[in-house]
Amino acid sequence: MAKKRFGVSIDEKLLKELNFFLKKQGYKSRSHLIEELLNAWLRERKWEREKKDVYAVFIMVYEHEKRQISKKLLEKGHRHTDEVISTLHIHIDEKNCLEITVLKGKPGHIRKISDELSATKGIKYGKLIRV
Does the model's pTM come out above 0.70? Predict the structure, then answer.
């Protein structure tokens, strides 16, 4: 595949941090990393435009004793029984839980479910991973 060269301006501090992680992660060059990041970004944009059902994984961490969060998350899951394929619940420690939910449906609807879960009070971390 033919490669095309183009210039990128970047903050000097960000460039130093980028160079540090490039070496640490073993990337061949900045170009290799940028190409990989752009491909991932483009895949996400294509995923959002899909007309058919797609799969995604939603990962969240929360304190299970806070604000009846377990009950709220369970209720939200039951409102989306067609999209929630499976949920894995892991006790990280005495206070914190990690929950991984596999979702299937139209991209826009999956995004709304993800946003709804992320906005639940008490969620420390929430991330949607498109498959």
Answer: yes
| pLDDT mean across residues, the chain | 92
Q: Rounded distance, CA 84 to CA 92, Å?
A: 22
Q: In whole angstroms, how far apart are CA 70 and each of 63, 92, 128? A: 9, 15, 19
Alpha-carbon distance of 123 to 54, in angstroms, equals 24
E strands, 22-83, in order: 54-63
Please enumerate in sequence order all residues whose Cβ is within 8 A of that of 26, keeping only pairs 6 or more positions apart, or say none: none
8 A C-beta contact, residue 47 and residue 39: no
> Residues in the chain, how many?
131
The residue-averaged pLDDT of 25-43 equals 89
